[in-house]
Amino acid sequence: MASPPPADSVANLMGFLRKVGFGKTLPSIAHRQDSISHIIRSILSVDVVQPGHIICTLTVNPTVANPYNTLHGGVVASVSEAMTLACAKSVVGDKELFLGEMTTSYLSAARIDEKVEVEASILRQGRRVIVTSVDFRIKTTKKLFYTSRTTVYIMPLSIKFIVQLDEQ
Question: For every residue of 86-142, which 3-state class applies, written as one string?
Answer without folding.
Answer: HHHHHHHCCCCEEEEEEEEEECCCCECCCEEEEEEEEEEECCCEEEEEEEEEECCCC
